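Run log // design_07
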């Protein structure tokens, strides 16, 4: 299996903007690459499970249905870092918003967000997972409980981050087999850290939910 990263897409788009991507049958998108396509409203076409750049110019007459797939790079630790750094930046933003609202959530997001921005795969091997599992075995369940309207908007933002973490964890848990030993170790470390953070988010959301009920 081959993978297309966000860097692959950004490089191709910078060279020549496009409106459609071909889906090589033997390739997949990393989560950040998929988000890039969503953000730029780029259509994905083809029979594969992932997208690769094509040569058609965006909004160019007569080229709307042209999609020329490009070679995707083998999955690597560098592709994992693309996703880790993006999530790290989002965690730092969430930590900033959490200041004065939830000190525990702010601290957890800031510490891990800072580490991820620097590409550090910190993890506690016994870190709890939001789905009750330990370590890095399998994907996580969605954040529980469902949030109520009276809960501070911060926790709805946290739920979005939780969903992004779950998606990235599921992807990298499946892609782990395609990596070398160093890459698998990095993925396992990151999955442990991400699972621990998801457990913290779930605990903070549950506490806010109880306080909303009391109010």
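design_07 sequence
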């Amino acid at each position: 299996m081959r993978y297309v990263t966000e860097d692959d897409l950004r490089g191709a788009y910078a060279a020549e903007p496009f409106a459609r991507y071909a889906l090589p049958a033997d390739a997949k998108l990393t989560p950040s690459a998929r988000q890039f396509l969503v953000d730029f409203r780029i259509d994905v076409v083809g029979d594969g499970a992932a997208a690769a750049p094509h040569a058609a110019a965006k909004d160019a007459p007569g080229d709307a249905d042209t999609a020329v797939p490009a070679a995707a790079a083998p999955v690597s630790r560098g592709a994992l870092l693309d996703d880790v750094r993006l999530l790290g930046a989002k965690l730092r933003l969430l930590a900033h918003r959490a200041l004065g609202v939830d000190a525990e959530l702010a601290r957890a997001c800031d510490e891990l967000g800072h580490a991820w921005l620097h590409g550090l795969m910190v993890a506690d091997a016994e870190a709890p997972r939001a789905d009750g599992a330990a370590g890095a075995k399998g994907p996580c369940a969605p954040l529980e409980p469902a949030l109520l309207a009276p809960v501070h908007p911060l926790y709805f933002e946290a739920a979005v981050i939780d969903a992004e973490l779950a998606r990235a964890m599921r992807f990298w848990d499946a892609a782990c087999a395609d990596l070398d030993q160093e890459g698998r170790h990095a993925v396992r470390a990151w999955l442990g850290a991400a699972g621990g953070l998801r457990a913290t988010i779930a605990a903070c959301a549950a506490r806010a939910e109880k306080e909303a009920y009391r109010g």
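Confidence is low (pLDDT under 50) at residues 49-73, 124-140.
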